[in-house]
Specification:
- With about 250 residues, the chain is of the alpha+beta class.
- It has one domain.
- It is built from three helices and seven strands; from the N terminus they run αβββααββββ.
- The termini are far apart.
Length: about 250
């Protein structure tokens, strides 16, 4: 009867080294594939939100939902900050299981109104409000009940308002409130995600990690289509979103 030959220590070390080399080669590929899938999922979220906004507009004379604002919100709404308090919505119960509204129209309550009141009937799940690559929002029940989510209303900003004191880097958007009748519907962003502003992302000055995706940020446009806007083009978007300098600033 012949004895089976065992592996030598050298042979085992060679096998381990080969596995380590393959892992070092493949892990970045797997990570890139995973991020590509997350980017696509985020883009699909925005498309669904865009469809819900257009369905809402069909039911409300081509107007877009405005959260707690009584007039068209033709500006950005920071999803992390709180402001514009004193809204008549104070004390309103949206029936989502959370606390009654405080009446602060700017910030997470704006998005809670969109999520759980104005667009809820057009969306199958609250999960579309959360980008899988968002490092700050996970889609927990607590976040949902407060209105904390991944995307940002961005109908206009300082570089498209000649009265802001900043250089005008595109069309004057003051006369075009966010609705289905607005000009520039195929080029004007309605919802964006982290990385859009000049102080966020790898193309910021200085660069930082406040962004969701390595190549750029997904954006939903007024006409309902969504696509990725590559970093390095923030001065050429509508609204323009870089920070500092003049209209020739390349980041």
């Amino acid at each position: 009867m012949r004895n089976k030959k065992a592996f030598t220590l050298i042979e085992l070390l060679v096998v381990i080294a080969i596995i380590a080399i393959l892992a070092a080669i493949l892990f970045p590929v797997f990570a890139q594939a995973r991020e590509t899938a997350r980017t696509s999922s985020c883009l699909n979220n925005m498309k669904q939100i865009g469809t819900s906004v257009l369905m809402y507009a069909q039911d409300f004379d081509e107007g877009f939902p405005m959260g707690e604002y009584s007039a068209p919100r033709n500006w950005e709404v920071n999803p992390d900050a709180v402001g514009d308090c004193g809204s008549p919505w104070a004390g309103f119960n949206p029936g989502d299981g959370g606390a009654v509204f405080t009446g602060c129209a700017y910030g997470p309550e704006f998005y809670r109104t969109l999520m759980h009141v104005q667009l809820k009937m057009y969306l199958k799940s609250d999960q579309v409000w959360y980008c899988p690559s968002d490092k700050f929002r996970s889609g927990s029940q607590s976040e949902k009940l407060q209105g904390y989510q991944s995307y940002q209303w961005f109908a206009s900003w300082i570089y498209n308002d000649p009265t802001s004191g900043f250089p005008q880097c595109g069309p004057d958007l003051r006369g075009f409130p966010p609705d289905a009748k607005s000009e520039y519907v195929s080029r004007r962003m309605l919802f964006v995600e982290r990385g859009v502003f000049g102080w966020d992302g790898p193309d910021a000055n200085p660069p930082n990690t406040s962004f969701n995706h390595a190549r750029g940020y997904n954006a939903l446009f007024f006409d309902g289509h969504a696509k990725m806007v590559l970093f390095g083009h923030k001065n050429a978007t509508i609204p323009a979103s870089y920070w500092g300098g003049n209209c020739n600033y390349t980041n």
